[in-house]
Amino acid sequence: MALELYHAGLTTCSKKARLCLHEKGLDYISHYVNLREFENHTPEYLAINPNGVVPTLIHDGKAIVESTFINEYIDEVFPGPALSPSDPVLRAQMRSWGKMADDYGLAAVRIPTWSRTKLAAIDALKESNNLDAVVARIPLMDHRDKYRQIAAGGFSEKEFEDAYAKMDFVYDRVELALQEGGPYLVGEMFTLADINMLPFIDQFAKYRPQLIDDGAHPQTKAWLDRVMARPTVVKVYNPSDEAPARPPARSQSAA
Amino acid sequence: MALELYHAGLTTCSKKARLCLHEKGLDYISHYVNLREFENHTPEYLAINPNGVVPTLIHDGKAIVESTFINEYIDEVFPGPALSPSDPVLRAQMRSWGKMADDYGLAAVRIPTWSRTKLAAIDALKESNNLDAVVARIPLMDHRDKYRQIAAGGFSEKEFEDAYAKMDFVYDRVELALQEGGPYLVGEMFTLADINMLPFIDQFAKYRPQLIDDGAHPQTKAWLDRVMARPTVVKVYNPSDEAPARPPARSQSAA
Questions:
Q1: Is A73–B59 a contact, with Cβ atoms under 8 angstroms apart?
Q2: What is the rounded distance in angstroms from the CA atom of residue A105 to the CA atom of residue A97?
Q3: Which residues span the domain enclosing A180?
């Protein structure tokens, strides 16, 4: 009856699943997957997650993949505070935020983040002549492409601009939702929408401080301050035994 | 207590929602949104769907967006045959297929489809000097970009290659799932996974007949034949009063 989470600690999608487990008050066995060592592309890991991405939840021996659906699974199966609204209209809205986290959140954060965090590993692979072999083992073509791009000099200026435009779009949509409703993304209740969007809203503020500073997103700033102060978030978003601090990363040269 | 669907008939995501409604045996008021006339970007339509995409479901005056979540909403709220498994593990798998329909299905089909279907409207806009104004009203930046690309000569060879690679990836994953399980995508039961993936598996076979002909996807071919023969699918996937035949489209010049 074990519950196990394979995750990469302080990375965005791993924080989504870890926060959900902590909000539900569940005990689980933590398996840290070191992305810098490409542990997510080993045959053993691909056997539980054919896409070679983190996190993966194992419950009673069965693997559940995709952090958004892991979280919906956790909320459906386990006791603890409900994290989905009972109103189906609000539940559909919650799911749309989950999709926004993927389509805009993850897509946007990956450009500035990967351009910093993947460089050291890629340089080491180049030096040992292992780059092509390691990249060829990556299951998702989009990820292979991005590794090759970083190895070849990095993302284009247009890709950075698109990523920043996505961040602005997300902040505008969040602000609108909070101004029309709130205090949480789908209304009165703290839900999976907040859990799934948090790593991106938090990270975007670091890449684009103007989103917080320019006064155009006051409700988003208040939401971020409020949610980041939750004891579960403090625990999950800070370095710990389960989620070691990541080594300092260097940036790609100016595109 | 009305149920209304705003949709674009025989386009992929509209077929998803229409098929779900027909499978549940629900009556609804059909509103055809003419994409060639940009009716999905009018202020009236944006009031119910801020992304300016189809379909949108209206139930008791409330708008539900995103075809995947529209379908989950319909299945949760209305009587009729269940289209989601009761086992939460299978439900998570069903949701992952919904995400694959978006991330690979829609992303892949859009390149060859838009390069054909949008040309006439874009040429007419160019001729009347309205292109910039109309494109500026499109809410999603990715859609604006694609319109501008088509207007400027079309998608690149790399974009077509990526789209075809995504189609191959989807067929391989579908084949694997059906060989390990079946007869439907998440096992014994016909679910939203089948409904949400169908327009893409069907359309991919038209763009890449080798996916069906080369003998590498026998279970996928059998699944496609079986699902396409359902009376609801015959009704939804063929031209009708609700879903008029689309005018013949011409192709962009070779990229």
A1: no
A2: 10
A3: 88-236
pLDDT in tens, A36-87: 999 999 999 999 999 999 999 999 999 999 999 999 999 999 999 999 999 9
Render pLDDT for B78-104 as a digit per residue (tens, 0 to 9). 999 999 999 999 999 999 999 999 999
Matching residue, tokens 């039961």: B189
Cβ contact A66–B99 (<8 Å): yes
Q: Give the DSSP H or E segment for B112.
A: helix B107-117
End-of-domain residue from the set A77, A96, A118: A77
Residue B143 inside a domain? The answer is: yes
Domain co-membership, A92 together with A29: no
The Cα A59–Cα A73 span in angstroms is 10
Residue B249 lies in a domain: no
**Residues B94, B62: one domain?**
no
Domain shared by B123 and B185, yes or no: yes
ipTM of the complex: 0.95
Distance between CA A228 and CA A219 in Å, rounded? 14
Chain A contacts of B92, Cβ < 8 Å? 64-66, 69-70, 72-73
Rg (CA), chain B: 18
Cβ count near B180 (within 10 Å): 9
What's the structural domain count of chain A? 2
* Alpha carbon A81 to chain centroid, angstroms: 22
